[in-house]
Specification:
The protein is an alpha+beta fold and 256 residues long. It has one domain (14-198). The chain has eight helices and ten strands. It has helices at 14-19, 27-36, 49-52, 60-81, 86-99, 154-157, 162-173, 213-219; strands at residues 43-45, 108-114, 121-130, 139-144, 183-187, 192-196, 222-224, 232-237, 240-245, 251-253. A six-stranded antiparallel beta sheet has the order 1-5-6-4-3-2, sandwiched between helices. A two-stranded antiparallel sheet has the order 7-10. β8 and β9 form a beta hairpin. The chain is globular, with a radius of gyration of 18 Å. Residues 1-7 have low confidence and may be disordered.
Length: 256
C-alpha cells in the first residue's frame, strides 16, 4: 500500500503499513505487532526519501540495505547521545552518511540538543548537516522513557509514551496534510522517533494568520486532545510559511 507523498514522506511497507491501520492500539498491542516482524529489528518506517535519493547504490537490494544501515547507525548514535557523547554520535552517523554518499566527504552531521516537554520524553535532538553547501534534510529526534512490562501503571502507559505516539504519527502520515509534521521512523530498541524538523522559510516573510487547527484536523478525520499554542509552530511548505502541528501524542480519530 502506498500513498501520494511529497519528497520527504515515508512509504508504507511491512510493519510500517501494518501499524498505519489503527491509531488506537495499546502499547502492548503495538509491541505484539513489532514481535510479528522480527526482520524489522525494531524499526518501523524509513529514512526521508530526500535522503534515499542521494544513496550511491544502484540495485534495489543494495539501496534497501543502505537505508537499514543508516537507521542502525542512528540507533548507535542515539545511544551515545544518551550519555552526552556528542562527538562520538556525530562520527557514527557521519561515517554512515559518507559511506552511502548522502553527504559530501568534507561535510559532517552534528546533533544539537533541544528542550521539549512531555512526561514520557527524556531528550530531543536536531540533526543537521554542516559544511559546504549543506542540503540534507534536517530531522528531529525525540527520545522516550523505557518502561518495564511489569510496571503497575500500565493503564496510563497503554496510551502514552513511545509506542502510541509512534503509531499516531504513522497514522497521521496517511492524511498527507501539509499542516501535520511528518514521522519518518521509530526505533523500538532505541526508544526514539525521527520526524520532520520544522523550520520557517528563509529570508523575510509575512507571518501567516493562525488557522483553525481543529477544523483542519477534522477535515482530515482527526482531532487532538491537548491542542494549544505550543503544539503549533510556523514551518514552510513549497517555500511559503505555514502553521504545523508538531505534537502528535494527543491525536485521535475524529468522531462523526
Amino acid at each position: 500500500m502506498q500513498i501520494k507523498n511529497n519528497t520527504n514522506t515515508p512509504k508504507f511497507t511491512g510493519l510500517y503499513s501494518n501499524l498505519a491501520k489503527d491509531m488506537h492500539k495499546t502499547t502492548r498491542e503495538i509491541e505484539a505487532e513489532f514481535d510479528l516482524f522480527q526482520n524489522a529489528d525494531g524499526i518501523a518506517g524509513s529514512i526521508p526519501t530526500s535522503w534515499s535519493a542521494k544513496i550511491n547504490k544502484i540495485s534495489k537490494v543494495e539501496r534497501q540495505k543502505a537505508k537499514s544501515e543508516i537507521q542502525h547507525a542512528m540507533r548507535d548514535a542515539i545511544e551515545m547521545l544518551k550519555t552526552n557523547r556528542f562527538k562520538d554520535a556525530s562520527k557514527i552517523i557521519t561515517d554512515a552518511a559518507h559511506q552511502f554518499g548522502i553527504i559530501p566527504e568534507n561535510n559532517k552531521l552534528l546533533f544539537v540538543k533541544r528542550k521539549v516537554r512531555g512526561s514520557q520524553i527524556t531528550n530531543a535532538f536536531v540533526m543537521k548537516e554542516y559544511g559546504k553547501k549543506p542540503s540534507l534534510t534536517r530531522v528531529f529526534i525525540k527520545c522516550f522513557k523505557h518502561h518495564d512490562k511489569e510496571m503497575e501503571n500500565w493503564g496510563f502507559l497503554d496510551y502514552h509514551g513511545f509506542y502510541p505516539e509512534l503509531v499516531r504519527g504513522i497514522f497521521a502520515n496517511k492524511k498527507c496534510s501539509k499542516h501535520i509534521v511528518k514521522t519518518f521512523w521509530g526505533d523500538a530498541k532505541g526508544y526514539f522517533m525521527v520526524s520532520e524538523y520544522v523550520v520557517p522559510p528563509t529570508g523575510k516573510y509575512k507571518r501567516p494568520k493562525l488557522p483553525n487547527m481543529t477544523k483542519i484536523l477534522r477535515k482530515n478525520g482527526l482531532d487532538h486532545m491537548d491542542l494549544h499554542d505550543e503544539n503549533i509552530i510556523i514551518g514552510s511548505y513549497n517555500g511559503k510559511p505555514i502553521w504545523k502541528l508538531v505534537d502528535l501524542g494527543g491525536l485521535v480519530e475524529a468522531r462523526h
